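#lab-general

N.A. 3:47 PM
ok so I finally got the sequence cleaned up, no stray characters, all 404 residues accounted for. can someone with queue access submit it? mine expired

B.Y. 3:52 PM
send it over

N.A. 3:53 PM
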Amino acid sequence: MTAPTWHDEPPGADRLEPPRFAFGGQTWREISYLLASLPMAIAGFVYVVTGVSVGAGLSVTVVGLPLLALVLAGARLLGKAERARARALLGLRIEEPSPLPSHGDTALGRVWTRLRDPVGWRAALFGLIRLPWGVATFAVTLVSLFVLWPVLPFVSRVLTNADRAMVRGLLSPSDELERRIAELESDRGVVVDAAAADLRRIERDLHDGAQARLVNLAMGLGLAKEKLLEDPDAAASMVAEAHGEVKLALQELRDLARGIHPAVLTDRGLDAALSSLAARCTVPVQVVAELPARPAEAIEGIAYFTVSELLQNVSKHSRARSASVEVWRSRDRLLIQVRDDGVGGASLDGGSGMAGLADRLGAVDGLFVVDSPAGGPTTVTAELPWRDRAVDPAGVRPSPAARG
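B.Y. 4:20 PM
back already:
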């Protein structure tokens, strides 16, 4: 039998071996990541070792600590670049750490904040340990490209899984801590905005109310003074009008002071202050306050104004026949619940001030929940952190007369 010639080969025999580059896109991205890791690791290692060594060595001088703080700021940027590379090539989704909180505008404060930055220190540690691993992964990947080609996808996946774990462990934000920092930064802005809005409201009320009445009072008394000798009866009438203006101005000032911080809350506590609010509500309100002690003044004030605004909503929008206010302490929380039997439909985006209340309570680590189905009833629950009230060193609080 003669040996078969090339004409005897079955059709398609030259296509039995798979093409050399027939890997999926994810495999090639992982290979690219592993090969690019070595130059990145070298740059990061040189930067961290040089910067930290020089900064620590010069820490006995004026420039040492600022230099070290600058190195940590740069390490943050290196970490950001590595997270971006991992997202693009490894499909690893990692949130960016929160910006550093600002501690004043002084240079010393900024340096101290940088030196205490855990994100910067973890990024620096990543730069140190990344070099030996980068050398090893580069060598294994390079050998696999030319020698271990059939198992290269498996090798690249194992190596990049270790990289994923390293990036996730050292370059991802500390979940709870970073989340709280971000929340506190946001809440600080809410508090500042709320305080500015309150100041504008007080200024507007003073300008349009008491100040305008006092100006009219001064003008009326000036005219009465001029007519005192030539027309005593007209002067007496003007003085009587001025007396009425004084009463109205005093009432407006009392209302304004009550809006800033009511005296009954300072002197008698939350139970009496909420009863006073209930008495002014247009709907009959039952108040139940079960508090073993008075909370901190700030928490007490927030609770008072929360109930005040909720009862105003009951009066204006609910069409209710009755309402109730309950306040009690549960462990380390102060709980408030306001109910009414009105038409319901209240929501955080309904334009009744609910969203502002939720923001203000959130700014002090509180909660605000609205349950108001159409047709009612409406139940609003608020939670505030309980903080004990500071004790006056003398053991007693000054009386209103002493404070006045």
